[in-house]
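Quiz preparation item.
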């Protein structure tokens, strides 16, 4: 019978990723800024959590108030204030949502040829291919983010149905 190992840290995290809080939470998002980060490293980043500053950086990136980002990740303002003051890390669920949203935003800006304001307006408008929902109203779930990504894919490749 094979011996079962219980390694709680099965993946190596490069040195510069371990110090995310010092360097800025969103500057190194996997698949966007540093494509050298593999998916197993990404899993470990999600497990470890991002610093709460990632919420503010996401707020600036999509030009919505921090309160709206907190609504997307379903976090009360009081919890955010307390955890940020304690310099805590986000839980894995919120970390993954923020990473996915950041990647979606980067892709969306590319689809709109670098026109961030045009993409931000598109995020807020009801979309027929999303069942009449505005894309930004679907960012609170992984499935919603995937649907918005599919919609952007259709725009990018000229498929309207």
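Solution:
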């Amino acid at each position: 019978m094979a011996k079962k190992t219980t390694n709680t840290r099965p993946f190596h995290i490069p040195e510069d990723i371990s110090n995310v809080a010092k360097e800025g939470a969103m500057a190194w998002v996997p698949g966007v800024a540093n494509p050298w980060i593999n998916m197993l490293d990404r899993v470990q980043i999600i497990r470890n959590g991002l610093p709460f500053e990632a919420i503010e950086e996401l707020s600036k990136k999509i030009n919505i108030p921090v309160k709206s980002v907190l609504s997307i990740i379903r976090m009360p303002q009081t919890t955010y204030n307390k955890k940020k003051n304690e310099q805590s890390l986000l839980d894995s669920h919120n970390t993954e949502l923020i990473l996915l949203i950041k990647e979606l935003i980067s892709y969306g800006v590319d689809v709109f040829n670098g026109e961030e304001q045009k993409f931000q307006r598109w995020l807020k408008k009801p979309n027929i291919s999303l069942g009449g929902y505005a894309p930004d109203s679907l960012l609170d779930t992984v499935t919603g983010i995937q649907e918005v990504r599919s919609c952007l894919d259709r725009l990018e490749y000229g498929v309207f149905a």
